[in-house]
């Protein structure tokens, strides 16, 4: 009989301790979340990137190799782009593939140009310096990897877009 009473008393004490811990944990959770405020942030508009745009064409791509100190070779590029579309662009990611006399690709380099190009217009970019490039390159193929759309100006009051 004493064993049964002792077992019941110990079980009752353990249940009371467990209930107290759960209750205290709930109170601490409420205290911790009561002081925090919800923050809402707005981010500025960002450009939309178009990968391999069909309306941008590389009209001309020239390059010249030159030696750099330390035995390497660098290339200076002149590129002309034309926008055949109806959207304005403001930044370009250009890719240059260097080819040997047989037409095999020796290396590929890319660069970013932050310029603007209106619809129907052409843009000449000169002085693009890339290094290191293979000294055996005889030809280069330029392409537009991606372009960022320029933000459109908001319509004036009283005018339809």
Short description:
Helices cover 20% and strands 42% of the residues.
What does it look like?
- The protein is α+β, with helices and mostly antiparallel strands and 161 residues long.
- It has one helix spanning 2-34; strands at residues 49-51, 56-68, 72-83, 89-99, 105-113, 122-130, 139-149.
- It has a 4-stranded antiparallel β-sheet with strand order 1-7-4-5, with no helix packed on it.
- The longest helix has 33 residues, at 2-34.
- The chain is elongated.
- The model is unreliable at 155-161 (pLDDT under 50).
Q: How would you summarize the topology of this molecule?
A:
Elements: H1 2-34, E1 49-51, E2 56-68, E3 72-83, E4 89-99, E5 105-113, E6 122-130, E7 139-149
Antiparallel strand pairs: 1-7, 2-3, 3-6, 4-5, 4-7
């Amino acid at each position: 009989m004493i064993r049964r009473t002792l077992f019941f008393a110990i079980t009752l004490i353990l249940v009371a301790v467990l209930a107290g811990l759960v209750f205290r944990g709930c109170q601490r959770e409420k205290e911790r979340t009561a002081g925090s405020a919800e923050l809402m942030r707005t981010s500025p508009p960002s450009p939309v990137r178009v990968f391999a745009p069909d309306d941008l064409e590389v009209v001309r791509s020239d390059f010249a190799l030159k030696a750099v100190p330390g035995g390497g070779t660098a290339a200076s590029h002149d590129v002309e782009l034309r926008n055949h579309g109806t959207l304005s662009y403001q930044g370009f990611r250009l890719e240059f593939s260097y080819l040997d006399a047989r037409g095999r690709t020796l290396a590929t380099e890319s660069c970013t140009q932050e310029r603007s190009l209106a619809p129907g217009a052409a843009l000449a970019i000169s002085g693009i310096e890339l290094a290191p490039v293979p000294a055996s390159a005889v030809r280069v193929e330029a392409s537009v990897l991606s372009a960022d759309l320029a933000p459109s100006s908001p319509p004036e009051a009283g005018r339809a877009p």
